[in-house]
Amino acid sequence: MGGCCFSTPLDNNQQPPQQPQIPPGERKNDGFVNWPVTEFFLSDITTATNNFSSDEIISENAEESSNVVYKGCLLENLGFVAVKRFKNTPWDDPDYFTEDAKTAGELKHKRLVKLLGYCCEEDEGLLVAEFMPNDTLAKRLFQEKNMEWSMRLRVAYHIVEALDYCNSVRFDEYDNLSAYTVLFDKDGDACLSSFGLVKEIIRYNRREGGNVRTGNVTYRFGTILVNLLTGLQISPSHAPEMINGKDVTELMDPNLKGKFSTEEATIVLKLASECLQWKGYIENGITKKLVATLKALQAKKEISSSEMHEVTKQHDVASSSSQQQLPP
Length: 328
Hints:
By secondary structure, this protein is α+β, with helices and mostly antiparallel strands. Helices cover 41% and strands 10% of the residues. The protein is elongated and about 55 Å long.
């Protein structure tokens, strides 16, 4: 890992900036809750990522093979950061990229990874965000294959919480939403990567061609729901045919080994179907419905767990009593 460093481009008459001092109580996930949106020197990011060493690569998204995410360190004692590097500059006007990054960096939500800053220098486009230490949804779901049903419901709820917040502050578009852009923080909670808030204009427009607008945020969320149901990695364009005419029990991930609620899975499948039929951009109506439905499943899950514990305890007592009454 390269050495930790920090700087911001300065005018000739400016003094070096003070490193932001963040009280421990305001830190989120060893990150930077109140960190100001910062324009970083390319030299600092190069040093922090050990000259963009292949050893520091942490991205695994096959859909974004043209871009790479690195682990880096810009400030000592404040944790690591993630650096997204665009191999091909995806914008015609650097000012657009800068303004988009500045605006996205102002967003604050517990389910959204904090975007710390950017670098637009020497034809390089770089974004810097908090580092999430517990992998992606894609890795847990498609590779490790050990995610319980209750956790899948929780992940779906956390993602739509982030999307609903973004929508409420007029960020109704998100570039390339997928299981790869859902990250887990140090507490194991799902968070949405902030990198997708800064859109890649050229590739984004090209992807909108065709009959299925798979760049649509609501559609993409529907694809993630299908991922959570089936445990399968699928192309967004194939998601509708994956669930069309299928019974929920046919679709469910065999790695769950039957440990799921058919009623809950049916509700999630219905939500997925609605999302995959959505034609326009994400709107308050659909996000509010998704939040309300998935939140209700969370509450029901908590009640069910409590009731199941009580039922198990009563069953144990009854079993013990019946055993005492049995003849030798």
